[in-house]
Amino acid sequence: MQSAKEIWKRVLGDLQIQVSKANYATWLSDSQGLSYDNSI
Length: 40
Prior knowledge:
By secondary structure, the chain is mainly alpha-helical.
């Protein structure tokens, strides 16, 4: 099982190539994965 931080790091990698550098730097670069619910 992966931690929320590990999952979010992978998501950020994908988002970095999908959004502009400015948007990534402004909104996403300092964000963190805190928790997730795997019950779905």
